[in-house]
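Q: Structure tokens for this one, please.
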Amino acid sequence: MKRIYLLRHAKSSRDDPTIEDFDRPLAPRGARDCRTMGRVLAEAGIAPELILCSAARRTRDTLDGVFPTPPEGSEVKIEKRLYLADGEHLLRRLERLDDNIETVLVIGHNPGLQELGLRLGGAGKTALFARLKAKFPTCALAEIEFAGRRWADLSAGRTRLTSLTSPKEANGP
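A: Here is the predicted structure, written as tokens:
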């Protein structure tokens, strides 16, 4: 079973209107949320073989906050084409993965990540799908299982959304 993890970048700062969107840093809350989600990933033993990260500053900062040191054996690819990519582009990128890769983490932006999650997550738990459809919060992590051997065969009929975790949920009431 292959696994796709979708991590929306953490809350970014909009304090300085002179900073271009691509270069916006994380807000203090975003940095805290990264530490929370880093703990969630570590406790769940999630160590993706490949991490695909948008080249925007807020996504790179999210990567660094969640994984101060990338998991052993993980390959990290920072890709400018993932910046604000839509769901279709993200799907096409996943379809080109090496078939030997079993787990991939995509760190990106909405609405593209949410579009991809909804496209691939429809066979998952109904309540999770409804939550994802309503909102994909900043720094939230969606997990999708893919029952295939070849990434080129990635399709909604062979995938299911198995979890959706936000920093707020991870911190508890």
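A few notes: The chain has a mean pLDDT of 94. DSSP finds six helices and six strands in the chain.
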